[in-house]
Known about the structure:
By secondary structure, the chain is mainly α. Helices cover about 50% and strands about 5% of the residues. The longest helix has about 70 residues, at about 70-140. The chain is rod-shaped, with a radius of gyration of 37 Å. The chain starts with a strand and ends with a strand.
Amino acid sequence: MAIRARKILENVVYALVAAFNASRKAAVFGAPAADTSTNTTTADAAVTAVADSAVTAVADAAVTALADGSDLATTQALANDLKAKYNASVALTNDIKAKYNAAVALANDIKAKYNLAVALANEQKADFNALRTLVLDMRTKMVSSSSVHYDVTELPIASNDFRNPTQSNMQVTAADGDGTPPTLVALANQCKAFYNLHIADAQAHKVADAANGTAAADATDLATAQTLLNELKGDFNTHVASTTYHPNADSITVSAANATDQASADTLANQIKARINTHITSASTGSTIRLLDP
């Protein structure tokens, strides 16, 4: 049966592991591909510890406002003013240099840590893809010459614990026909519902069967139960014999006579129940993964 997993990375990883473990325990037909999946060994990506770069707080360099020197006194004043402004300009240049170097150091550290994160992500991708390839190969090898399905159609998820992604096989559990219309109605309706769900399962089949669904209305009394069961019998027999939908045709068919009264309807319904349950579980061992929208 398929393991259902929502399309969230952590859920998919858990599902892959569950499917892989089930496959390893299963009887495998043919040698699986070599296990090329490995544990990721690249160091964890890390945040940069380099301090943020900062803007310079040194005042802008300024031009001198003094007039050209015309004598000793004005020339000395001009020279002193130029010295002061030159020194201020040097201080500004040095501060810019220091902050530029700090920015370069920060950028280089970010580059190194980004490259490490890329390397880690690439290694995880490779390991994940190798594991997925192995699981899919094992699934192919597990399809024996007699398997009717690639997987068993499963019931919906019973819990939200994605760390333990297990389901139950879909099986008709309504009580067998016992000579009363209410019991027959319940059995006929569940057989129809589960059969229609099963043939729509594209993961169990080569492709979903859209041609052999049972369209008769749900049963409400003996007469409508007979109509439903007679149609379901024909639909089921056509479906199971088809290699359009199955790797191998199923040899089981419903052979009970069409329903014409309570007794014949009970006999037919009970056989349909047994045949549906056997047909659904005729599949390779192990589990596939069914992705669900989050």
